[in-house]
Amino acid sequence: MTGRKLLREEIEQVWNIDRSEVIDNVYHLESGTLVLRPQYFEVPGWPPGEAEKYTPILLDCFDRGGWFHGAFDHAALIGVVVLENKCIGKHNDRLQLKFLHVSIAYRNRGLGTQLFELAKTTARARRATRLYISATPSENTINFYLRLGCAIAEEPDLELLELEPEDIHLECEV
Ligand SMILES: CC(C)(COP(=O)(O)OP(=O)(O)OC[C@H]1O[C@@H](n2cnc3c(N)ncnc32)[C@H](O)[C@@H]1OP(=O)(O)O)[C@@H](O)C(=O)NCCC(=O)NCCS
């Protein structure tokens, strides 16, 4: 496996990542506390329309200086991490981890952790003090971020919260 910066013309390949997942439990935030509830569903892949909706958003992010890093197995893109360039938070010191996905066949081998740590290093180099993550509320995803030292965002970003109200909004020191 190899890792490198993604080129603008490679961004559409993120939709080749196999997003499928079986979810047994989902987290909810209740009075500031994470509560895990059984909720079974099978994610067959990217939802219909996802590529059409998010490709322009990712391209805009790239054009304003966002950081895109890919992991490849030979020529196949099997993991991607994206860091926003626009600072948020009342002290303008947070950078959003905008995208982190690993193809199902490559999960649970440490690749997600590696990509997350690279994003932290990059955020630090860009003079941010924290990463902000609007995270899918599934058990595996939230446990992954908690294990890496993330915690519930004390002051959730209102714009991002409005976009993804079901997500768990997390932060992590870099
Ligand atoms: C969340 C996600 C990015 C994690 O990627 P990953 O490559 O599986 O991450 P890791 O392998 O580093 O860690 C996953 C688990 O594998 C375990 N693991 C790490 N290295 C391992 C190794 N060498 N051998 C066995 N297990 C290992 C970790 O302990 C971790 O357990 P956790 O459940 O406590 O977190 C990935 O599961 C994914 O793409 N999920 C679907 C999309 C998604 O939710 N993205 C985040 C959107 S906010």
What does this molecule look like?
With 174 residues, the protein is of the alpha+beta class. The protein has helices at 50-63, 111-125, 139-147, 158-163, and strands at 2-5, 21-30, 33-43, 67-73, 76-83, 94-102, 130-135, 151-152, 168-173. The strands form two sheets. A seven-stranded mixed beta sheet has the order 1-4-5-6-7-9-8, covered by helices on one side. Strand 6 (94-102), helix 2 and strand 7 (130-135) form a beta-alpha-beta unit. It is globular, with a radius of gyration of 16 Å. The site of coenzyme A has 18 residues, from strand 6, helix 2 and helix 3.
* Bound small-molecule species: coenzyme A
Q: What's the level 1 CATH class?
A: Alpha Beta
Overall geometry comes to globular
Q: What's the N-to-C terminus distance?
A: 26 Å
Number of DSSP-assigned strands: 9
Q: What CATH architecture would you give?
A: 3-Layer(aba) Sandwich
Gyration radius, to the nearest Å? 16 Å
Helix content: 25-40%
Strand content: 35-45%
How many structural domains does the protein architecture include? 1
Low-confidence spans: none
Largest sheet: 7 strands, mixed
Secondary-structure element order, as H and E?
Answer: EEEHEEEHEHEHE
